[in-house]
User: Fold these one by one.
Assistant:
Number 1:
Amino acid sequence: MEKINAVITGVGGYVPDYVLTNEELSRMVDTTDEWIMTRIGVKERRILNEEGLGTSYMARKAAKQLVQRTGTNPDEIDAVVVCTTTPDYHFPSTASILCDKLGLKNAFAFDLQAACCGFLYGLDVVASLIASGRHKKVILVGADKMSSMVDYSERATCPIFGDGAAAVMVEATTEDYGIMDSILRTDGKGLPFLHMKAGGSVCTPSYFTVDHKMHYIYQEGRTVFKYAVSNMSEITATIAEKNGLNKDNIDWVIPHQANMRIIDAVASRLEVPMEKIMVNIQRYGNTSAGTLPLCLWDYEKQLKKGDNLIFTAFGAGFTYGAVYVKWGYDGSIK
Ligand code: UT7
């Protein structure tokens, strides 16, 4: 029997209209554009500030663009996976809301929570769904409304994050393209350094938790930074070596967009020049599960069939890993 590969056949994306600049942030907290640009590399980020809109709104916009661009008949979609840490509700899943908004009749849908590594894990999970032979067309979304859990009086955290969503279509093929390999890891020792203190089953919401600002992102930035640099650099070098990839035949590296200094470190470890590294952190900041597909959305025009892509990410957990993709089409499809 021929091997079934899972190939990305299209990209759709969405970022909200509202632009939160470093100038505006520096009127909210004690910071400067210079500090944020030197220490993080974010110039501005998008914020979904309309009342009553959550992650599924952005996911829907991205997925609708994807379905339209790929000319997909919604009845042919077998599954929808939404990678997010900021679901519309604890339950039901954001993916089930998306299914309804897209009018899908023959799909099953679920959320995948792996923090900033969600989309990376999602690529592997969807590749397995397709390799099983039971599913042929799957929508994979990375979407987060990070502004819903950022404390805008905390200067070390608020400049980093933004809101956004992007989606890819993943389809079965017998051609030698697609999601070729992945190395994924989870190190549960990361909990104390990056988490939300309340709102889960350990510490349920109360006046106390609200008064003590326990529903925001808690991050010990310096520690997370160190783990991110070493784990992402190591794992990208390992997947490259395992697949015979090096600075000459890697066409693109797509790193999680959390900090420009982390991106620089990954690039220099691989010895890949910056022209081959997808970067849009200046405009969107860290959209968590949204960063990797938003990079694809921005760079799609420049991609060619057969290009070797390495995705890598790091997030709360800690979750991290790298995925090797052989790109399946030329340029922008629409
Ligand atoms: O995506 C999930 C994974 N997350 C990450 O990958 C994030 C990893 N961590 C980071 O990106 C960085 O650690 C941060 C951007 C969060 C912080 O940058 P840093 O260079 O590690 O700063 P720091 O926390 O060590 O703080 C250095 C100084 C401190 O002042 P003192 O104590 O040296 O006087 C902070 O109070 O910078 C100060 N500081 C700021 N100053 C101006 C912290 N935030 C700000 C700010 N503006 N916004």
Number 2:
Amino acid sequence: MASLEEHSLMSAGQPAAHVFPIGSRINEAGRLEIGGCDLVEIAETFGTPAYVYAEDDIRARARAYLDAFRARIERFEVVYASKAFPCTAAFRLLAGEGLSCDVASGGELHLALGAGFAPERIYLHGNNKSDAELEQARDAGVGHVVLDSFDEIDRLERIAPGQRVLLRVTPGISPSTHAFISTGQVDSKFGFGMDDVPRAIERIRELELVGLHAHLGSQIFDLEPYERLAELLAGIGRYPLLNLGGGLGIAYTYDDRPPSIEDYVDALLESAPDDVTILCEPGRSIVGNAGVTIYRVGTVKRIPDVRTYVAVDGGMSDNLRPMLYGARYEAELADRLGGDTLCTIAGKHCESGDILARDVRLDDPRPGDVLVMPATGAYGHAMASNYNAIPRPPVIFCRDGDAREVVRRETFEDLTLRDV
Ligand code: LLP
């Protein structure tokens, strides 16, 4: 398996490789390979659109987290934030790698348990957990519930007295990222503000408070706020567990240069006391660059002196991030990487805002081409919808030249399955 350092996709003259899964390469036929599988062949076998993952990439990043902690401290836990890619095959793989798991709903809890995550390795999050979710956690023997509000303290004491809990703190630190995915600031629906924390701790009678939690936000490149976080939490009181959340950013575009996992872990540990267990909750930085989405080009519309629209057979139903956060992505043709035709990649949905990427350069795109968008492994499948009654894409795992479908494509029949 290629290490993160050996991560070089392409020979000279090709676009930067760090947005593609580890081990990706251009094969003898000039086509892009992910996990040893030719993407043009994958498109023929499984159809498009499809989410295609390099299994080894997910493993390598999980191991990079574990190794980074292991090299620095003895007591730690790497908790997979499963909202990034709540897929049974991913849960299985990451449970097998020895990670713990963060779930943010009864549904994610159901999936994690079903995939074989030990309940005691699961952390349940949510700013408005229902009675049913808390009962589900209690009955399953979930290791830790992360308390998010005064109301929840009362609710959980009634439902699951004795439950081990962490208290979610909103530390008033806000790194720079999109406002929708920033959570550390005082004005947040999540957690207890610093002023409320003492009162919350006092209020807890029937629960076992074993730690504190904070999550600053997502897609963060600036490590400085993390350096102070452990110290800030430890200052609240001495508890055995400090969970410092997730949020390390990844490269979506060729110009993005996120910090390494090692540097991120360094920052997390910068002010951490020696006598506690440190937890972190990465989601995107484990699965984001492991996955690409493949589409088939259907139409190419050239508006002279204005723009060239390249329309693909998916769009905002399989990747909402460009529309929701203004997220930028790259795109390539699977068998002709590079090129200099300036293009806008449009989806097939019935609205003008259904644009997946702007100003990407392709090699003379034509109907029938397979188009690849890298870095779609996190929050793509997770936030997919059936808008315009489009069946959701399958998930394909590739490894050593073998491709296996781990989630099948939805069918039209699936679309009426819930009709009563
Ligand atoms: N821990 C907690 C408590 C979280 O709320 C999150 C993300 C994570 C960990 C993992 O963050 P990550 O390492 O993946 O950045 N849909 C948005 C992202 C929302 C993230 C919500 N919470 C997106 O597509 O960018």
